[in-house]
Amino acid sequence: METKPGKAIYLTGADSSEYEIRRRAKVIKENHGLQTVSLPDDFYCVATNEEFMQELTHRVKQHSTDVVIFDTLADFHEGNMYESESANNTMKAFVKLAHSANVAVILITHTRKGSKIKMHYDVEDISDSRVFGTKSDFVFGLKSEYQSDGSNLIELQCLKSRSMKPIQPLRAEINYHSATNELKVQKTNQMFSYELEVQNKEETKKYKIAQVHKLKSEGKTHSQIAKQLKVSKGTVHNYAQEPAPS
After folding, report:
1. Percent residues over pLDDT 90 in the chain
2. Which among 98, 23, 37, 92 is positioned nearest to 68, based on CA atoms?
3. Rounded CA gap, 126 and 169, in Å?
4. Please, what is the Cα angle at 119 between 112 and 205, to 5 degrees?
5. Residue 79 has pLDDT above 80, yes or no
6. Band of the pLDDT at 13, cuts 50, 70, 90?
7. In angstroms, what CA-CA distances link 184 with 63, 147, 152, 180?
8. In the predicted model, is pLDDT for residue 105 greater than 90?
9. CA-to-CA dists, residue 165 to 22, 125, 137, 160, 187, angstroms
10. 97 class by beta-carbon count within 10 Å (0-12 exposed, 13-18 middle, 19+ buried)
11. For residue 162, what are the contacts with CB-CB under 8 A and spacing of at least 6?
């Protein structure tokens, strides 16, 4: 996609150390002018803390920042993540930041546990209050799966687009070579494991349907075919009703 370089402020919770952020930035070779700052422990970094948001707004304007990223949303939210009133207060603070500083605000959160097996996400798959999804202008879902060769297969899905036509899913493969410290991201048509599983089931079914038609033409009974293909007589009957694969 066509993009242009911009300045970002990336805020992360206690899960990532300053060393880890610098290590990642070095790997993706986007660390030109990178500055990492550890915020004081007594600084209450939640969206509803006016002192914190005023200081952040000041920094955004001071450095002509294009985007502010909060990773994860839970680290900057005060109260229960599933409670609509506190979620609404947090979103109001983020919207105020976006408008007053003319900056894009990206909130990173998780999907529900059961959604991992879904082929396509929707806004309801956000694990937190529905307020976060309904109050956002855009919602994206990111599927990720590590492959046997060490690469990471990802797909970016546009789940909601308030002001433009939703983009089609983007699929890419990420390869990291530790020997050269190189990171490569390239578009791919590679399939996720659940897709391969579905494809294999469909191919197996096609094969068995073809075998049922073939064995019937040879004069074999449904019982004989079921025993040979190791399926039930009911399955043989159903497969016999299907058109023979070309």
Report:
1. 58
2. 98
3. 18
4. 135
5. yes
6. confident
7. 30, 15, 11, 11
8. yes
9. 36, 21, 12, 9, 21
10. buried
11. 137, 138
CB count within 10 Å of CB 75 equals 15
Nearest by Cα to 110 from 13, 21, 190: 13
- Other C-beta atoms closer than 10 Å to the C-beta of 165 total 7
Interval 125-135: pLDDT, tens: 998 889 999 99
When comparing pLDDT for 140 and 35, which is higher? 140
State whether residue 199 is helix, strand or coil.
helix
For 214, the token pair is 């073939």
Q: Where are the alpha helices (DSSP H) in 80-221?
A: 84-101, 130-134, 193-217
Residue type, 39: L
Question: What CA–CA distance (Å, rounded) separates 91 from 74?
Answer: 12
Q: Enter the pTM of the model.
A: 0.79
